[in-house]
Each structure stands twice: as C-alpha cells, then as structure tokens.
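look at this:
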Amino acid sequence: MSLSVTCYYDSSYKSYVKYWCKGSHWKSCNILKTSRDNSDNRYSMSDNLTDFSITVISKGMRPEDSDPYVCGIERPFIDYMHAVRVTVLQ
C-alpha cells in the first residue's frame, strides 16, 4: 500500500530544511526523510518551491506503520510541525 501526504508551509520557510518523521513530538519523533536527503528508501520527498508544499510518498505501508507522523520545518529554537494521523488498513 502506498501513502501520499502533502503539507503546505508559509513562503518565508522556502529555504528551510523540511522533514517527515514518525511520532507526535519533535523531541522524540524518528526522522524518516528530509528535503536534504535524496537517498532511495521507502520514503521520497519533494519540495515544491512554487506552491510552498512538501509531498511525501511512502511505498509498502503496513498496518504496523499506523501512527502519528509529522511534517516539520527545521527552525531555530522550536520547529514548525504539522501532525498527521496515518492509519493503514489490511
């Protein structure tokens, strides 16, 4: 099963690093992909600098992948984060 999630951000964050992580809190989430990481794994991310959005695609999602996830932007002090609840049905 595949997953596609698009998160939008303010244009002022255009040059910031974006990330996708599993977990609901920035201190404890497991970063799965960043906009600087172009390695090929289960997750891919594209940063659309025209409409100010990131799209994360994950292949091979399983029911055990169900969890809170976060689209985040690295900022000084506290990151900007948007939580997404992912539920994978069998």
Summary: The chain has a mean pLDDT of 91.
